[in-house]
Specification:
GO biological process, one term: glycolytic process
Largest sheet: 6 strands, mixed
CATH topology: Rossmann fold
Pathway: Carbohydrate degradation; glycolysis; pyruvate from D-glyceraldehyde 3-phosphate: step 3/5
Pfam families: His_Phos_1
GO molecular function: phosphoglycerate mutase activity
CATH class: Alpha Beta
Shape: globular
CATH architecture: 3-Layer(aba) Sandwich
Number of strands: 6
Number of domains: 1
Distance between the termini: 18 Å
Order of helices and strands: EHHEHEHHHEHEE
Radius of gyration: 17 Å
Strand order of the largest sheet: 3-2-4-1-5-6
Family: Belongs to the phosphoglycerate mutase family. BPG-dependent PGAM subfamily.
Helix content: 25-40%
């Protein structure tokens, strides 16, 4: 039975400051480091042995992946990094304080920006100093693939090819897979895996640092789902 483990990165520095983060490459907060290490210990206690790990190109997810593998004595496991597993791009909201943004635009509008499946945030121009178009880790991408902002629908659309080309084939080969990524990229993949509706996905929250285990049938439908 194929096994898939999701781990949202531990608390980041901007999570702690209540700021929209998205594609900004912030580090883990000290508490986030401990969350990631604790997740690795839980995986070791559960006897889960990975064949391959996947993560994003943002250091809070990469470090979480490494801490998990280190604490479970599996640091040797092959790891693949991809921008397609990045957090949802929050556009011009990135770097803003969530509470202050709610005071400015209203709680309802900010809730829609954060949780709506198909509503885009205010977009970031490619010419903006904070645009990912200026980041060399994305230099090989088609400029049309570099977002100015994303909703969950767009996040799923860019994550799905990576699922189909890399994660699903590993699972179909009966491998045990770790995906250490972000709240929204994991929510997008969970929506696909579990067949969650556009409305119900708004209520799905994946907590930081807690490994989420899927035991899958041979056709990759979910047989069992639980947190360690």
């Amino acid at each position: 039975m194929p096994k898939l483990v999701f781990s949202r990165h531990g608390l980041s520095e901007w999570n702690a400051l209540n700021q929209f983060t998205g594609w900004v490459d912030v580090d883990l907060a000290p508490e986030g480091v401990e969350e990631a290490k604790a997740g690795g210990r839980k995986i070791k206690e559960a006897g889960i042995e990975f064949d391959v790990a996947f993560t994003s190109v943002l250091k809070r997810a990469i470090k979480t992946c490494n801490y998990i593998l280190e604490e479970s004595d599996q640091l040797w496991v092959p790891t693949v990094k991809s921008w397609r597993l990045n957090e949802r791009h929050y556009g011009a909201l990135q770097g803003l304080n969530k509470k202050e943004t709610a005071e400015k635009y209203g709680d309802e509008q900010v809730h829609i920006w954060r949780r709506s499946y198909d509503t885009l945030p205010p977009l970031l121009s490619p010419e903006d100093e904070g645009s990912a178009a200026k980041d060399r880790r994305y230099a090989d991408l088609d400029p049309r693939d570099i977002p100015g902002g994303e909703n969950l629908k767009v996040t799923l659309e860019r994550a799905l090819p990576f699922w189909q080309d890399h994660i699903a084939p590993a699972l179909l080969d009966n491998k045990t897979v770790l995906v250490a990524a972000h709240g929204n990229s994991l929510r997008a993949l969970a929506k696909h895996i579990e067949g969650i509706s556009d409305d119900d996905i708004m209520d799905l929250e994946i907590p930081t640092g807690q490994p989420l285990v899927y035991e899958l049938n041979d056709d990759l439908t979910v047989a069992k789902k639980y947190y360690l």
